[in-house]
């Protein structure tokens, strides 16, 4: 099977649709299908044409609302990657970022006559949507958790991610599967584990998604003798901390405990062992969000659109069959 057929199959589209998108031919392929095609191409390491740097016909100015503070960006490299790619493609498309809004000053934000729209990056909390609307009615949320978001949203497909990783671990023979991470993701994972008949609540740790928590929890679980066969950990930072704790307790990875991280980062190859991850393209998400925002700014579309971007597994050395 040639690469285009593989990409089409993985993305759930026709070969012609995959070819049209990858070679930038004119087509009526939806934004959701385009994102799936680009995600599939990236996962199969298919060389795709670079996005044209031709500016948009109209020069737009936007505000960039970054709703995770600096410490969250350090703990969650995925949010930092979303921002990086958003800024890159704003530059390529001639979209000027006129204002940066942070959570600490969002309540002071006022409508800006020279801003055409707002790109929101991060997790929307109560009151954020009202504050953003004061800046501009044209906005798109780019996030890894869409629980509080309204209007146009581009987010990871959390249900698909959890189904995928649980299915892989189950096929590898793991029956005791744990989780370390934020409660909102944990509740979704809990539901999927229940559906799979693998729920062991004593192995689920719903906590702040910080590296120190990954270390503390895995250290305590090791010392108490209550380790699961495999753990799904919310971030690469927490995964590294968990691996460090297991090693200090003399546990072998992956022979005794397998580790999977929800976030794929370039450094995952250099972990020891290299880290099995769930990969979602931050670049494609940022491009899709800017496409939706440009559409809203141009056409003043009222109908909200929601795009969930699927994940692929990156199997590395931190997981093994039981």
Automatic annotation (TrEMBL):
Keywords: DNA-binding, Transcription, Transcription regulation. Residues 1-71 form the HTH lacI-type domain. The keyword Cytoplasm does not apply. Signal peptide: none annotated. Pfam families: LacI (PF00356), Peripla_BP_3 (PF13377). The keyword DNA-binding applies. GO terms for molecular function: DNA-binding transcription factor activity; transcription cis-regulatory region binding. PANTHER family: HTH-TYPE TRANSCRIPTIONAL REGULATOR EBGR, LACI-RELATED TRANSCRIPTIONAL REPRESSOR. This is HTH lacI-type domain-containing protein. It comes from Metabacillus indicus.
